[in-house]
Amino acid sequence: MTQPIFMVGARGAGKTTVGSVLAKALGYKFVDTDLTLLSTSGMSVADIVEREGWEGFRRRETETLKAICAPFTVIATGGGVVLAQENRDFMRDAGTVIYLRSPASTLANRLEDSPQEDQRPTLTGKPITEEMKEVLNEREALYQQAAHHVVDGTLDPAGVVNAILDTLALPVAR
Known about the structure:
- By secondary structure, the chain is of the alpha/beta class.
- The chain has helices at 15-26, 33-41, 45-68, 85-94, 104-113, 128-146, 157-168, and strands spanning 5-8, 29-32, 73-76, 96-101, 149-152.
- The chain has a single domain, classed as Rossmann fold (3-Layer(aba) Sandwich).
- Strands 2-3-1-4-5 form a five-stranded parallel beta sheet, sandwiched between helices.
């Protein structure tokens, strides 16, 4: 398999952590759309949203997704990349999409345990557990629609990577 592998899921799903471990196991390159977008724009997500609104951020996200798509690459996407039909179609056509599925409580715990300074601004202004429940309610069908495969994201990173390798029946790089 030479096509890119796209990791989708909500904030805290482990897309970056699992994606980087998966890429190493396969001998693939690893790219994170959010980190690439921040590096190329020179702004944080909060800065982009403040200046251009969520619409501007989503436009930049789509451009970044398409720009970094390449063979032999694992791509961690932003949690909201599935909001655009264009992105869901692009990922499904260009590669293999893995949805790292976890309940809201797991996602909230991870986000509380490892807060990041550049973490995205709140989408709802509510406590993180409530916000994650709302986000999953809004996006679950979209993650499912985008995904070729759904993997249990509650396992530790090595367990998730093994589940992905088993699902895809891919050989590990030596």
